[in-house]
Amino acid sequence: MYRAIDSFPRWRSYFYFITLIFFLAWLVKNVFIAVIIETFAEIRVQFQQMWGSRSSTTSTATTQMFHEDAAGGWQLVAVDVNKPQGRAPACLQKMMRSSVFHMFILSMVAVDVIVAASNYYKGENFKRQYDEFYLAEVAFTVLFDLEALLKIWCLGFTGYISSSLHKFELLLVIGTTLHIYPDLYHSQFTYFQVLRVVRLIKISPALEDFVYKIFGPGKKLGSLVVFTASLLIVMSAISLQMFCFVEELDRFTTFPRAFMSMFQILTQEGWVDVMDQTLNAVGHMWAPVVAIYFILYHLFATLILLSLFVAVILDNLELDEDLKKLKQLKQSEANADTKEKLPLRLRIFEKFPNRPQMVKISKLPSDFTVPKIRESFMKQFIDRQQQDTSCLLRRLPSASSSSCDHSKRSAIEENRYIDQKLRKSVFSIRARNLLEKETAINKILRACTRQRMLSGSFEGQPAKERSILSVQHHIRQERRSLRHGSNSQRISRGKSLETLTQDHSNTVRYRNAQREDSEIKMIQEKKEQAEMKRKVQEEELRENHPYFDKPLFIVGREHRFRNFCRVVVRARFNASKTDPVTGAVKNTKYHQLYDLLGLVTYLDWVMIIVTICSCISMMFESPFRRVMHAPTLQIAEYVFVIFMSIELNLKIMADGLFFTPTAVIRDFGGVMDIFIYLVSLIFLCWMPQNVPAKSGAQLLMVLRCLRPLRIFKLVPQMRKVVRELFSGFKEIFLVSILLLTLMLVFASFGVQLFAGKLAKCNDPHIISREDCHGIFRINVSVSKNLNLKLRPGEKKPGFWVPRVWANPRNFNFDNVGNAMLALFEVLSLKGWVEVRDVIIHRVGPIHGIYIHVFVFLGCMIGLTLFVGVVIANFNENKGTALLTVDQRRWEDLKSRLKIAQPLHLPPRPDNDGFRAKMYDITQHPFFKRTIAVLVLAQSVLLSVKWDAADPVTVPLATMSVVFTFIFVLEVTMKIIAMSPSGFWQSRRNRYDLLVTSLGVIWVILHFALLNAYTYMMGACVIVFRFFSICGKHVTLKMLLLTVVVSMYKSFFIIVGMFLLLLCYAFAGVVLFGTVKYGENINRHANFSSAGKAITVLFRIVTGEDWNKIMHDCMVQPPFCTPDNSTYWKTDCGNYAGALMYFCSFYVIIAYIMLNLLVAIIVENFSLFYSTEEDQLLSYNDLRHFQIIWNMVDDKREGVIPTFRVKFLLRLLRGRLEVDLDKDKLLFKHMCYEMERLHNGGDVTFHDVLSMLSYRSVDIRKSLQLEELLAREQLEYTIEEEVAKQTIRMWLKKCLKRIRAKQQQSCSIIHSLRESQQQELSRFLNPPSIETTQPSEDMNALNQDNSAQPETSSQQQLLSPTLSDRGGYRQDTGDAGKPQRKFGQWRLPSAPKPISHSVSSVNLRFGGRSTMKSVACKMNPMSDAASCGSEVKKWWTRQLTVESDESGEDLLDI
Predict the structure, then answer these.
(1) Residue 725: closest CA among 1063, 307, 1068, 1156
(2) E strands along 1195-1279, which residues?
(3) pLDDT of residue 130
(4) β-bridge pairing 798-802 and 1243-1244
């Protein structure tokens, strides 16, 4: 990168290499870890019998056995295997089993470790064989030998070696006993001495459990270690046979050299040097083959083999499925317990006596003194009385009703919790009764279905595979029927033994499930009670302590100024996303911007902007432009302090400082805010002009660099990142202890073997220390690869230097501290090759095993253990660590459904015209594959450099132009097939159109200019075109989605890394801004400004020579020029500061933050890693649903009306199909759930998809506790409402049938009447009627009758007539009432003088006006009018009776 900076523009080099490292090293490389982890998990599930079941952590000293108790049952009883089996006296056996003896031995081990760690190199002339460390080792060895002999005497030899821990102790005893022999002291037997530190693991039970969890099931980890060693041996042998004959190549001359070279490639340290040397030695002909060989081995070793170690460690940290469910319950119960207590800062008020606020009632006529009354009681009384008086005094009905309704609403809100409890209890009883009835019906239906299947009535029907929706629906129905039917008596007659056994097992299983439900409900009730208790405690403190919840014990609780501060502090942008009436989600165009604005409050937004501006101002600071001497930089300092003062004052006045429920200092974030403010205020008030190095003023300037951390407190997502980091601190601390133990073991061994032996004279011609004196001439090389040709007698340029006998510059093993620093650098896989070469060259080749073993343990196990623990902690913080396999798949499915979007693909045109043919062509798989091949072919053109001076470039550019025109044709065909609006709906089409447009612009510029810039633009267009191929294949799309979603979800983690890097950059400018140039501190990599410091730290994040940069910053006199007045005038470093600065930065960034990226990638990869075997929605199911949705959603808005859901569900096929013949009830449930969601409003794409996902899984297995209860409650409600609707519809249908029958009978009677009336009209047809013109009423009546169907006029009906004298009789008791007999109606007695002409009137002209007009025309006399009114009354009564018998009133039942 530095060479590219010197050759090209700086921004281009930075952009290229930073993006390359980010995408390849941090994202794409970690995808391999995700793939290996998921694949290993699938293999482990399939071959669990081979690995064996996980066993819980049990003590090595106890064994559990079954014993029969007094009640006849069996129980597990712990049996002590340390039972005395030896011949020692009872007192010694009791002493050996005591905890005092155990702690004494462990304390002696700790003292031995401390003594061994205190050993150091004392000089060449000091006699090392019989010093105090040797005598102490002899004493400790004798002590531990006596301990082993005592245990053997007490337990017996067989009982002693039965424990694995005792075997390890016996091995240490034998090894250390041989080690104290003078000839074997400080030899390879030293390993046994330093391995005593492993016994200290027994001190901490948590550490012991963690070690057992990782290394206890050693079958998998041991098998992987054996596989890695076998791979190294095989590849070393192959490389030896391939390259042993190559001249001038000494890396593969022997098997040990070949093994070291292949191991070096495995660790990625300097593997390019091994490959380059081999390529130069084999020549140009075999160089490509050798390069492919080394690259493939490197990729397999680094991407797959190391990922396997991470997968195995994660699998060891995994829990059993049953333990996960148990821990979920325990965790929920623990959370309920923790919510019950108030924080300690609030419980302090309980230590003080209760002093409630009292008031004195005055102006009351009384002979006795009235005592004081609590102010809160009087306020409640006064408020209630004011409400009552306001309701009485207001005379406007609207105002009185509104105020009284408000009081009623407040009373209802106060008792809402009790009402909900009562409703839940009533609903549970009602639902239980309903389910019992439904269970009985389901039992009958199942028996009928089973009988039909046995009788063969289903034979001949094709066997159709049931969809997952149908399967899960029947599973739920079966579960509920069995659960509620288990209480009733079952008839077991006629059943086989197998059937009875199965029914009994189902009953037991569902009783257990019912018991789990009760436990879950108890936990929920406990949580509610804890919250209520917490509120009650807070209210009691508020009632009894007047200073509670008072900011600074001054401002009142309801003071106006405090309310104003609360409004200012809590004001935020709140854009409503849902309709308040229907609850439907609003489709806002700028919803992402609204979410961003509503992320924090307005006050926090202001402080974020002020903090960012202050950090930008600090970017311009340097040792040569300091804020103390630059007034322009002081402006930002004043602005930051003033704004932060206003912010803290507002928040303190609104929420309090410490002793209030929502205090500013209630967590670590509040403490950090106060600390940053105080540091900034002190620095602004002090503003030191001279800052000496390593002084308090420089420390204050370093603490001032923590200012960017304010953003962690202001942004909620950033606080979540910090919480994820520190919540898993326990496991990270345990891993750190293990790594430190490993480093201490090897450091102690290294001190005893290599102390003083790594020093050498700087003159390569001097071997002994006695001859290392004087001066010698050293040559200066301009470049490593530049060989200057010298004339005869001419010497190379150089200078004279004194000879010095010294250790290597960067490491030594003279004491434990330096040794652990060297091993820490080796643990990061940086510089270990140099340490190996120095040890082999100066001590001996056999000692190279030491560093190889440490690198293997530290790299393969230690670092991968760090990765595994960080991933496990991330999963635990996300709530996925305790999830079962089904629950994790359900969470992945929900996350995947959130990402899914409707297809932006318009439907095929209806006709078979030109557009339809184009649509078929563009959507054909062969067309898509052809385009993908063309994209790859165009990308191959970039394999040759496009140089304007090279004649080969012109043909390549011409071919690229041809490809561009083909892609233009593709886009044109798609636009014709889909229409411009349909083409624009897809984002992929937009991207293709953009790249194609850029290609057309490039073609125009290429033929117009034809220079280097157009060639570069053409190469960029080809690169952009290459990214479009990722969406054309399912697997590539899955991996691309993994990377993209990981970038989206890790945005705040990346921002957090940048903020930490910015803090370290500011501190690096203060500490190392003037350090002299060294081996790696140069004009490109230095801390002279914040920008350059950021580039150096980014390089350290990648691990590139971070240790060498640290040693350059440790330079001390006499190798530098000190200055005690100011730090910017010296070029010396800071040894302690550099050690803490670089080590802490590397651990936090490389070991924790980057592993969080790995955890996010692993989590997101599992979202898209699904197969058809999973009983969840697969890619094909989602694709099918998207296609069906695209057919129903014709407007492409992502929203459809509720009634269209029925059509969508009927169109689904495959695993999401709903068979209306078999699952009609399920179809009703799904439709009602959609109607109920937004109160009948429109539903979105994700609403329907979420409903299908819930219906397609077994909620008992997949859902967590709270979600399971909520979902079951919802489904019970839906079933009840659908049952009510079904009953209501059935009643309506019955009423319709009854009404239809009654209408049919009435129509028959009416037609009979008409026929008889026609006969009467023909019989009694006077001439006056024929000659009389019909009135308007008659015409209207004729028009109405002509519109009636012909069938009604042809029916024969029985109708009563006035001429039927025999059919009527007078009844004095029923006078004035119609009487019915044999289908006829009897009229009441009419007056005697009735004219014959009147009695012959045709009654088919029924109606008041018609009857009146006819009667008047027939007889204008008064007696005729009275007869017409009588007939009118009879007809009205007849119509009334008919309407009463029509059945219309049955609708009100």
Answers:
(1) 1156
(2) 1199-1200, 1243-1244
(3) 58
(4) unpaired
pLDDT in tens, 149-184: 998 988 888 888 888 888 888 998 999 999 888 888
Tens digits of residue pLDDT in 495-550: 444 444 555 555 555 555 556 566 666 766 777 777 788 788 888 888 788 888 88
Are 572 and 600 in contact by the 8 Å Cβ rule? The answer is yes
Q: Give CA–CA dist 249/273, Å, rounded.
A: 12
Place of tokens 């009979």: 1312
Write phi, then psi, for 1384 (nearest 5 degrees): -120, 155
pLDDT at 606: 94
User: Each residue of 532-542: pLDDT tens digit?
Assistant: 887 888 888 88
Nearest to 54 by CA among 314, 331, 408: 314
CA-to-CA distance for 999 and 1028, rounded, in angstroms? 14
In this predicted structure, what is the pLDDT of residue 68? Answer: 47
Q: Flag residues of the chain having pLDDT under 50.
A: 49-79, 81-82, 383-431, 445, 448-464, 486-500, 1328-1425, 1431, 1434-1435, 1437-1453
CB-hemisphere CA count at 13 Å for 890?
Answer: 22
Residue 51 confidence (pLDDT): 44
**What's the pLDDT at 534?**
78
List the alpha helices (DSSP H) in 1193-1241.
Answer: 1204-1211, 1224-1237
* Contact predicate 696/687, CB 8 Å: no
**One-letter-per-residue 3-state SS of 645-658:** HHHHHHHHHHHCCC
Check if the beta carbon of residue 32 is closer than 8 Å to that of residue 298: no
The whole-number pLDDT of residue 306 equals: 80
Handedness of CA 363, 366, 368, 373 (dihedral sign): negative
Pairwise CA distance, residues 704 & 626, whole Å = 13
Instruction: Specify the DSSP class assigned to residue 622.
Output: B
Cβ(1042)–Cβ(1164) below 8 Å: yes
1381 DSSP β-pair partners: 1384
Confidence (pLDDT) at 1: 78
Altogether, the residues listed in the chain come to a count of: 1453
Helix (H) or strand (E) holding 227: helix 218-243
| Alpha-carbon gap, residue 155 to 81, rounded angstroms | 9
Q: Give the integer Cα–Cα distance in Å for 1258 and 473.
A: 9
Cα diameter, the chain? 167
List the structure tokens of 390. 């306001």
End-to-end C-alpha distance for the chain, whole angstroms: 88
* Exposed / middle / buried, residue 1127 (Cβ in 10 Å: 0-12, 13-18, 19+): buried
pTM above 0.90, yes or no: no
Please give the pLDDT value at position 1387.
38
3-state secondary structure 559-615: CHHHHHHHHHHHCCCCCCCECCCCCCECCCCCHHHHHHHCCCCHHHHHHHHHHHHHH
CB 1411 within 8 A of CB 1325: no
- The CA distance from 1301 to 1308, in Å, is 11
Cα separation, 544 vs 1112, whole angstroms = 64
- 1105 by DSSP, 3-state: which? coil
Tokens for 171, please give them. Answer: 């091995």
**807 token code pair:** 């250790």
What are all long-range contacts of 1218-1223, with beta carbons under 8 Å and residues at least 24 apart? 1218/467, 1218/469, 1218/470, 1219/464, 1219/466, 1219/467, 1219/470, 1222/466, 1222/470, 1223/469, 1223/470, 1223/473
Cis peptide before 1118 (omega within 30 of 0): yes
- Please give the single-letter amino acid code of residue 290: V
Which DSSP letter does residue 353 get? P
Other Cβ atoms closer than 10 A to 62: 11
- Helices (runs of H) and strands (runs of E) counted in the chain: 59, 12
